[in-house]
UniProtKB/TrEMBL annotation:
It is found in: Mitochondrion. It is an enzyme of class 6 (ligase). It catalyses: tRNA(Glu) + L-glutamate + ATP = L-glutamyl-tRNA(Glu) + AMP + diphosphate; tRNA(Gln) + L-glutamate + ATP = L-glutamyl-tRNA(Gln) + AMP + diphosphate; tRNA(Glx) + L-glutamate + ATP = L-glutamyl-tRNA(Glx) + AMP + diphosphate. Residues 21-338 form the Glutamyl/glutaminyl-tRNA synthetase class Ib catalytic domain. PANTHER family: GLUTAMATE--TRNA LIGASE, GLUTAMATE--TRNA LIGASE, MITOCHONDRIAL-RELATED. This is Nondiscriminating glutamyl-tRNA synthetase EARS2, mitochondrial.
Length: 498
């Protein structure tokens, strides 16, 4: 076993599990995608499940890919999802700053330590030479990698080249020994990184650190105890362990989260499904629904979605999260599961007084925005009744403002309609006696009424559809009356007689 795993290290592992410090460290290169949110969610839940600290760190060492405004958008998405960070940009902490471009002096100090202990060296190879190495390796069907040429320069040669102002980067000296570590998700991992890579760059020619160097330095200085990140970084972890050893530091524990794939096993892409968190938000998905969707797809919990099952709150998810239950297999996304999660969230909010008030207010505003030029029925009582009815029929509240359900909100405008007032008067008296204003009983009642008043049932339905909605098509009349409720149905019928 590697020398990193000593008795003192095992003691450290025991102590740091008491109050872990984890970080979500995205690059500000655009939007927060579903994979990034999954990483943030699992870090957050891991920290909260153990009374730990959730850190947000912005890794902007690649300045060429930085997108203006992306940090603000990222924080907005995290807050929307209920993932408030304890330490990060804009928050006072002894571990800051939390934006890597503001930590350049720190990296400069630490690269000097590696140069002094001869774990790193200056490399003066030009981009042209590196391209030739890559081209020749491809021709010979070999893995392209740096040949470590500058590792063998003498101190005098290095000094002369620096004095001459020759551009350089700083590389790390890889060793050929196999590195081992226990992945919290995948188990024991062993890999000799030098077999497929040349000495990696730690400081680029522009003076900025690479991901590998800044990542190690920041995690150590910020006291990060556990690193949960995507499986694409698993192969780099042994390289990071070598850097930790070069500094004489104890590394954190590592856990790598599997890929997120579509339901058919293909790679997640914009062409096949939404990947931007912003898109989910704009399309009516609730934050808790999306978080539950992610956790149900990736494991870490004992709960499933099914009949009689409800969504878990963030507090409940934190209490129940177990890292050893996270699946090492790719997380398959099932779009139907997301719709079910969103339906369950509507149901959950309706059962909470404060949440239901907010839900009603949001739908009320949505109705007014969708139909600004109509005479509307948007009383809170009416909206709440519609939402209760809709919990088993819709998955997003935006569906309720579609043209299919417009009749529920828009009061019909009836112009010169030839209807027997006596017939309507009898119908009103009949409906006032109905105790259960439900679809099945209403349908039977109206059929009986038609027979007793010598009017064909389809003709009565046509009249009522026009009176109740002003529409020629839509849901069944009995269903429409059930949705509108007794008072609203009677009011609309009476309005025609005035």
């Amino acid at each position: 076993m590697n020398s990193l795993f000593t008795p003192s290290y095992n003691l450290y592992r025991t102590l740091k599990t008491v109050c872990p410090r984890v970080r979500f460290a995205p690059s500000p290169t655009g939007y927060l995608h579903l994979g990034g949110l999954r990483t943030a969610v699992y870090n957050y839940l891991f920290a909260k499940s153990r009374g730990g600290v959730f850190i947000l760190r912005i890794e902007d060492t690649d300045q060429t890919r930085k997108v203006p405004g992306s940090v603000e958008a990222l924080v907005k998405d995290l807050n929307w999802a209920g993932l408030e960070f304890d330490e990060g940009p804009g928050k006072d902490s002894q571990y800051g700053p939390f934006i890597q471009s503001e930590r350049l002096n720190i990296y400069k100090d630490h690269i000097t330590k590696l140069l002094n202990n001869e774990s790193a060296y200056h490399c003066f190879c030009t981009e042209r030479r590196l391209n030739i190495l890559r081209r020749d390796a491809v021709k010979l069907q070999r893995v392209p990698k740096y040949d470590n040429r500058c590792r063998h320069l003498t101190p005098e040669e290095v000094k002369e080249k620096l004095k001459s102002g020759i551009p350089y980067c700083i590389r790390f000296k890889l060793t050929s020994d196999v590195q081992y570590y226990e992945d919290m998700v995948f188990g024991n991992i062993a890999y000799d990184v030098s077999l497929n890579e040349g000495d990696p760059v730690l400081i680029k020619g522009d003076g900025y650190p690479t991901y590998h160097f800044a990542n190690v330095v920041d995690d150590h200085l910020m006291g990060v105890s556990h690193v949960l990140r995507g499986v694409e970084w698993q192969i780099s972890t042994t390289k990071h362990l070598l850097i930790y050893r070069a500094f004489g530091w104890t590394p954190p524990e590592f856990g790598h989260l599997p890929l997120i794939v579509n339901s058919d096993g293909t790679k997640l892409s914009k062409r096949q499904s939404d990947v931007k968190v912003e898109d989910y938000r704009n399309n009516g998905v609730f934050p808790l629904a999306l978080v539950n969707y992610i956790t149900l797809s990736g494991g870490g919990f004992g709960h499933v979605v099914g009949e009689g099952v409800r969504l878990k709150t963030m507090e409940e998810l934190s209490q129940e999260f177990q890292i050893d239950r996270v699946s090492s297999h790719p997380s398959r996304l099932n779009p139907d599961l997301l719709e079910e999660c969103n339906r369950l969230e509507i149901k959950r909010q309706l059962q909470d007084h404060k949440l239901s008030e907010k839900l009603v207010d949001n739908l009320q505003e949505l109705i007014k925005t969708t139909y600004p030029k109509h005479n509307l029925n948007v009383s809170k009582e009416h909206i709440r009744n519609i939402l209760i009815w809709a919990t088993s029929r819709i998955t997003r509240i935006e569906e309720l403002v579609s043209t299919k359900f417009a009749f529920m909100w828009i009061l019909p405008t009836i112009d010169k309609i030839e209807i027997d007032n006596n017939l309507l008067e009898k119908l009103i008296q009949n409906l006032e006696k109905v105790e259960k204003f439900e679809e099945h009983s209403l349908k039977n009642n109206l059929r009986t009424f038609a027979e007793e008043n010598n009017i064909k049932f389809p003709a009565l339905m046509k009249i009522l559809r026009s009176v109740l909605s002003g529409l020629k098509e839509g849901p069944g009349v009995a269903e429409m009356m059930h949705l509108l409720g007794k008072n609203q149905s009677l009011e609309r019928i009476k309005a025609v007689m005035r």
